[in-house]
Design brief:
Elements lengths: L2 H23 L11 H25 L4 H4 L7 H19 L7 H21 L13 E2 L5 E2 L2 H22 L6 H16 L7 E3 L2 E2 H42 L1
Antiparallel strand pairs: 1-2, 3-4
Helix pairs in contact: 1-5, 2-4, 5-6, 5-7, 6-7, 7-8
Length: 248
């Protein structure tokens, strides 16, 4: 294993360890700790399998040999996040779990990706388009490029700080992971303009379309949940008023 691949593997391992440590240190989300151990294991397994499958899928679709490409190095965070999120939602539906579980994953995920992107930087993969900006980097092809891995690492680090503040101030409860992923979708859509990705349709790259799908689906889900929460609070208020009237 050469030094680049060794650095990549090292940062990926560090990212996984950071995820587990931060996830363990975070306060429990109400209702999640009360789930049976098997349900929690099923949700974690769904997130892992869905994330791996989603991260590899774009490379398999575009490969000449699908069997070989499942084992290749190519992975993408955007469709990996989509796959993990969908897999968890499907398993929650199958198991009849109504508890919101996303909040406890937002902060550890942001920190893990912030670390993992440095593995891509030292491996020389995922670089941007050519640039004459002073911080452009040569990743081995003799061309100075946007260090998009560093840009993304900084984005996730900033998001980790914002999510931490949301926890401290108890803002956006039950919607912090949605907020984070919507923000990432917007970030990825914008930075695709400085990535050497081919146009997929209507002047946009595949990952820009994936970002639109991810953000659109999350916004729709958020609106539906907001409507349900509003209706639930309204019904609870009606019940309280009815109880007060009966007591008088």
């Amino acid at each position: 294993m050469n030094s680049q691949r060794l650095a990549y593997a090292g940062f990926m391992l560090l990212a996984a360890v950071a995820f587990l440590i931060v996830r363990r240190a975070m306060p429990s989300v109400p209702g999640v700790a009360a789930l049976p151990r098997m349900d929690r294991f099923s949700l974690a397994g769904a997130a892992f399998v869905g994330g791996v499958f989603g991260a590899k899928l774009p490379f398999v679709i575009g490969a000449e040999s699908e069997s070989a490409n499942w084992l290749a190095d190519g992975k993408t965070i955007t469709t990996g996040l989509i796959g993990a999120y969908l897999a968890v939602e499907i398993v929650k539906w199958l198991l009849g779990i109504r508890v919101k579980t996303g909040d406890s994953f937002a902060l550890p995920l942001a920190i893990a990706i912030a670390i993992g992107r440095w593995g891509c930087f030292f491996n020389g993969c995922c670089g941007g388009t050519p640039t004459d900006w002073p911080w452009g980097c040569d990743f081995g092809d003799g061309i100075r490029r946007h260090p998009t891995q560093v840009y993304e690492s900084l984005f996730h680090l900033i998001m980790a700080g914002i999510i931490g503040q949301l926890w401290v101030r108890n803002w956006l409860p039950n919607h912090r992971l949605q907020f984070y992923l919507i923000a990432y979708s917007c970030y990825r859509f914008i930075t695709e303009f400085i990535r050497p990705e081919p146009v997929y349709a209507w002047g946009l790259t595949f990952y820009q379309w994936a970002s639109i799908v991810l953000a659109g689906g999350l916004i729709l889900q958020w609106l539906i949940e907001w409507r349900d929460e509003k209706q639930m609070n309204s019904n609870r208020g009606d019940l309280n008023r009815g109880s007060s009237s009966s007591a008088s």
